[in-house]
Amino acid sequence: xxxxxxxxxxxxxxxxxxxxxxxxxxxxxxxxxxxxxxxxxxxxxxxxxxxxxxxxxxxxxxxxxxxxxxxxxxxxxxxxxxxxxxxxxxxxxxxxxxxxxxxxxxxxxxxxxxxxxxxxxxxxxxxxxxxxxxxxxxxxxxxxxxxxxxxxxxxxxxxxxxxxxxxxxxxxxxxxxxxxxxxxxxxxxxxxxxxxxxxxxxx
Amino acid sequence: xxxxxxxxxxxxxxxxxxxxxxxxxxxxxxxxxxxxxxxxxxxxxxxxxxxxxxxxxxxxxxxxxxxxxxxxxxxxxxxxxxxxxxxxxxxxxxxxxxxxxxxxxxxxxxxxxxxxxxxxxxxxxxxxxxxxxxxxxxxxxxxxxxxxxxxxxxxxxxxxxxxxxxxxxxxxxxxxxxxxxxxxxxxxxxxxxxxxxxxxxxxxxxxxxxxxxxxxxxxxxxxxxxxxxxxxxxxxxxxxxxxxxxxxxxxxxxxxxxxxxxxxxxxxxxxxxxxxxxxxxxxxxxxxxxxxxxxxxxxxxxxxxxxxxxxxxxxxxxxxxxxxxxxxxxxxxxxxxxxxxxxxxxxxxxxxxxxxxxxxxxxxxxxxxxxxxxxxxxxxxxxxxxxxxxxxxxxxxxxxxxxxxxxxxxxxxxxxxxxxxxxxxxxxxxxxxxxxxxxxxxxxxxxxxxxxxxxxxxxxxxxxxxxxxxxxxxxxxxxxxxxxxxxxxxxxxxxxxxxxxxxxxxxxxxxxxxxxxxxxxxxxxxxxxxxxxxxxxxxxxxxxxxxxxxxxxxxxxxxxxxxxxxxxxxxxxxxxxxxxxxxxxxxxxxxxxxxxxxxxxxxxxxxxxxxxxxxxxxxxxxxxxxxxxxxxxxxxxxxxxxxxxxxxxxxxxxxxxxxxxxxxxxxxxxxxxxxxxxxxxxxxxxxxxxxxxxxxxxxxxxxxxxxxxxxxxxxxxxxxxxxxxxxxxxxxxxxxxxxxxxxxxxxxxxxxxxxxxxxxxxxxxxxxxxxxxxxxxxxxxxxxxxxxxxxxxxxxxxxxxxxxxxxxxxxxxxxxxxxxxxxxxxxxxxxxxxx
Lengths: 203, 835
What we know:
Helix content of chain A: 25-40%
Radius of gyration of chain A: 20 Å
Number of helices of chain A: 8
Oligomer: heterodimer
Strand order of the largest sheet of chain A: 2-1-3-4
Shape of chain A: elongated
CATH topology of the largest domain in chain B: Rossmann fold
CATH class of the largest domain in chain A: Mainly Alpha
Radius of gyration of chain B: 28 Å
Number of helices of chain B: 27
Number of domains of chain B: 5
CATH architecture of the largest domain in chain B: 3-Layer(aba) Sandwich
CATH class of the largest domain in chain B: Alpha Beta
Structural class of chain B: alpha/beta
Largest interface: A-B, 18 and 17 residues
CATH architecture of the largest domain in chain A: Orthogonal Bundle
Shape of chain B: globular
Largest sheet of chain A: 4 strands, mixed
Number of strands of chain B: 38
C-alpha cells in the first residue's frame, strides 16, 4: 500500500533514466515517495532500494540525513518557525510560543485533525525578513502574532492556494528536452570509468 | 599501475627531527609506523580506504609553507616533508580530539568487553586529557541492540569512526549497516527489521576501536588480560591465519591474524565462531565400539558404547590382521594436519600395504588437475593490473576470505576478473565480465574465449559477449583461479578448459580444494597412486622403500571405487578419517550400502556424525586447537597449527592413533612427535626439502612448497562433444552454501540456525513461464529419479538453469544426481502439486 504506486513507479523510472548511475536517483525518488504519502514510509524506502539495487540501509542513511524527508506522518501543513539569531532577536521565541498556543500543540507535534505540524528550525536564510516562518516551505515574512492568526485562519478556510500540500515539493519537476538529458548517451560509448558502466546497467 | 611503480622508489622526510625514508605513495600514518613512530588512530585501518573521520591521527606537518596540523591518514608522504608527532601543538590537538570523542562516550569500561584491549581506553591514557569539561547530559540509546544473531551494537559507546560501515560496504559488499540520522543524533544502525546478515559480520567486532560492537559468543566470557593467545592457522582451504585465545584451558574466541599473504586479518563468521564446535558437549571423549548392554562389544549391536583405547586398538588391528591389504581402504583425511596425514599415509601405504587411500570425497578435481599446473599465490593473483579467469563456485559461499581479496583486487587494484560461472555470484558485480557457460560446456566457452572463434552461440553464451571477454583476455598473462563448480557436472569439461588455458603462455593457476587441508592430503600422498611430495607411487617408491617396508606395487582405488567395492563386499576394513561421506558424497545410497556391508568400519573423528554412526570402532581424535602441526593451503603454503588447549577426555592426535595401530601391527611408525615427520620427509621429498617444524614457524608468511613438475596435467587433443541441450529442460547446478548441515556448523550454537531449507532456484522468467504456484512444492524429475521440492524464482540464476544448495534441511537434492552423467537436465512438472 505505501510502496510506490503505479503512477509513482512510472515517474520513478523516468527519473532513473536520467542518470548514468541508478543510485543517483535516490533523492528524487525519496521526494516522490514523500509526495505520494506525505511522508516517507519504511515500505517505500524498501521499494526504492529494490528498484535502485542498493540496500534499504543505504536508502535510510540518505533519507535520515535530510530534515525535509519526514519518516513519520506529519500534518498537511508543515509550519517551520525560524529561531536563527536574527529571528530570535526580533521575537521568534514569542512567535513560536504564540503558534503553540494557537494550534494547541507543542513544537514537534501535529494537531489532532492532521492539519498542522509545528517545528522550530535553524536559520532559513531570510534574516532581512525576520521573524519569518515557512508553511510547506513557502516563506511568510515579518510575521507578527496577528499575521500568524490570520494565516492559520486563511489556510483553514482554504484561501491560501499559493501554499501547496506537504510533500508536493517534487511536483516541480524538471522538464528537459530529451537530447539534453544526462546519461542519454549510451553508457558504453561514454568516456567513463569501468565502474560507471557497470552500475548504470539494468539488472 | 603507476602506483606500484612509484612505490618502488624511496623518498626522504623528517620525522621528529630525524631523517627517515619511506616508500613513495605511502600514507603518512603508515610511513611513520614503518619508521617506528605509532600515531594514534581510530578510523584508519590499513586494509580499508582512509576517511579522516576521527581526526585522532592529526600531526604537525611542514611541507615548506610552515607547520600545520593535518590528519596523517589522509596525507601522502612527500619528499622533504617535516613531520612532528611529538610537538606541543600536536599533543594539544590530539588531546582536544580525544576530549571531543569522549563527550558522548559512556565510560562504562568496567562492564565493557573491550576494556583492556580498547584503543579508545589505551589512547585516552596515552594521549588524553584525563578530565572532561563536559557537564551536560550525554546522548542515550537503548543498549545494546542485536544487529544480527551474533553481534551486539551499543550506540552509546560508538565514536562514529566509520570502520564497521566501511567494512560492510567496501570490503565485503554487504552495506546493511549505515550511518543513520545526522549531527548529534548520528548513529550506526541497520534498516528496521533488516539485520546485518553478512557472512563476515564478526570482523566488525574485531576492528571496532571501542566497545560498540561486541560478539555474543564472547560476551562477558573473559577479560583481555586473562586471555592467553597463540598464532595458528584455521584449517580451511585458504589456511586463514588466526590467533586462538583461551582462558582457563577453554578457547573463547578466534581472531583474524593480519599477515600479508592470505586473509589480511579477515575471517568468515563460519570459521570465527566455530570455536564452539570444537568444545561442544557432543565431542566424543572416549573410544567407542559397536555394542549392546553392559558396554559389551557386539557386532550386531544397535549403537556405539564406551570402550578403552587398548580394547579398540586391539579390535582394529585384529580386523586388519584377519584380512589382506587389498581389502583394506582409507577414505577422508582432509581435516588432519600435514603431520597426521603423513602418518596415516605411511600406516596405510607403507605398513599395511594398501593403496586404496583417498582423502577426497568424489567432489574434488583429480590430483593432476590440482598439482599439474604452474602455480601462483593469492597475492600474485591480486596484484595490480592482472587479468584473472575465475572458474569457481561462488567464492562468497565457499572461500570467504578469497572473495574478500579478489573483491579488493577488482575494486582497488584494477584487476580484471573474467568470471565463468553457471549463475551470478558474490563477485559478479565487481567482475569485468561474467559469462554463464551451461554446465558441461565450459571447455567450448574457454576455447572461444581464448581464440575469439566460434559459432553464434557457445555453451549458452552469445558470441558478442564472448568476443567482449576475448578482448580483455587476448595477449594477456592469465591468472586462473579454478575449482569444481557443481557436483552435477563431471570433471572432464573443466579439465579440458584447464588444458586449453595451460597452452596460453605464462598462465598461472590457483586451485581451489573443497575441504580444510585437502591440499596437504594430496601433498602427503593421500590419493591412490601418490606418495608424499608430489610424486607417483611408481616413481617415488625407491625413496621411501627403506622406511615404508610394505609399499604396494599397483595403483589403488579412489573413493568412488572404494565405496563401490565395499558395497560389493570386497572391502573388509574401511577407515573413515574425519569425514562424513553419507552427508558429503554424491551418492548416499552407495555409502549406506558400503557402510553396512563392510566388516569393520573404523571411524576417526571428533563427533559421531551420520557416517560414524555406522562405525564398528570409533577412535576419538583431537581437534586442531589441541594439536601441534601444520597446514597446507591452496597455494601450497605451509603454516603452523599450534596447540592452545588440552585435548578433552582421552582423545588423541590423529598421528598418534596411526602410530599406535602400527605398533600393534608390530611395526614402528617412528613418529613420536609431529617433528619426526619432517625428519623423515624432507630428505625424501624435493618439494618438502627445506621444510621443518622450525622453518614453518620462522617466517610470518609460512613456507611455500616448490612444485616438482613430476605430476602434470595431460594435454587434451580435442574438446569432447557436449550433449545437445533440449530447451524444455533445466540444467542442474548443485553447489555448497556457507552454512549447511556439516558437523562444524551444526555443533556451533551460534551458527546452526543459519542452515537453510532445500529448494531449487530458477530464473523468474522460467518460473513464470512454467506457471509454478508460489510456495507449493512441485515434482522435479531427472531421468528416472524424482523429487518433490520447493522451486523459487531467483534473478541471479540465468534462464534454463536450476540451482540448488547442497546439504540443507529437508529434501536431499543429491537424489537428482545421475551416476556417471556429464551434466544433468531436470524437468519440472508444475501440474503435479503436492498438498
